[in-house]
Every structure is written in structure tokens, then in C-alpha cells.
Amino acid sequence: MSDEQTIYNLELTGALSEDLEELMVRGTAGEVLEQVADAWGLEDDPDGIDASIEGIYPSVKAYLAHQLIEDHMGKSGAFSDPESLIKAMILDGTARILSDDELDEILDDEEMDEYEEERASLDEEWTDGVWET
Q: What CA–CA distance (Å, rounded) separates 109 from 24?
């Protein structure tokens, strides 16, 4: 499997930021950076950003998260792509690979979120096991 297809299941440690102490993420390296960007509240502002990030990062905010993580690690500009950054985070303890049990918990939460979204889109309401119309 190439690095571009590697799916990471990680917990990001408080070494990055107190805000991320409990952040568990799942996805490719770019998707992980996208989730970190969302957790930090970064905005997708393409002004002044080199177009060469296209194809490497899913968004400008993922690119900005990459830069901020490098800064937090004290290694600004050291990692040329999301994969190398994520691997370095694992090696230095900034990110931890989740156990199978922790991953199962995240997947259960994602399935419940999808279920709630689907349920919310119905025209009828479900209350205490009874359809209300």
C-alpha cells in the first residue's frame, strides 16, 4: 500500500496544544491535518497561498495546520508533505496510534452520527420508539 493510501488512526497529544489533548482522528495524512485544522478553528483562506499545495493537501487549512504543527514541534519547514509530518509526529510522541478498542469506539461514534443525521432528515419524528406524523 502506498503512503497516499495509508489510513491513520491517531490520538493527538497535548504536546501540540491543550485544545487537542483528547482529539482522536482517522484518515489519510491530509485528512488528519484537515481534522486538526477544524479542531483549531482554522479557516480555508486561499489568498496568498501557493497553488502547489493542490493535490498534496485537501485544503488550505490542512496546509496551515501542517505549518502550525511543525512550529509546535520546533521543526518549522522540516517536513515536505503530510505523510512525513504524520510519521514524525508518531515517532516523537506528538501522535499515538490508537488501539483496536479505541478505534472501534470511534467507528461506533461515527456510525451513530450517521444514523442521527439520517434520522434528522426524515419528515416524521421518532419519539420513544413511536413514529409521530
A: 12
**For cell 478498542, what's the residue?**
101
pTM: predicted TM-score of the whole model, two decimal places: 0.69
Cell of residue 42, nine digits: 482554522
Residue 61 CA to its chain's centroid (Å): 11
List, for residues 98-119, the tens digit of each pLDDT value: 888 877 777 777 666 666 666 6
Considering just the CA atoms, what is the radius of gyration of the chain in Å? 18
In whole angstroms, give the CA distance from residue 56 to residue 80.
10
The label of the residue with cell 442521527 reads: 116
Half-sphere exposure of 133 (CA within 13 A, CB side): 0
pLDDT band (50, 70, 90) for residue 120:
low
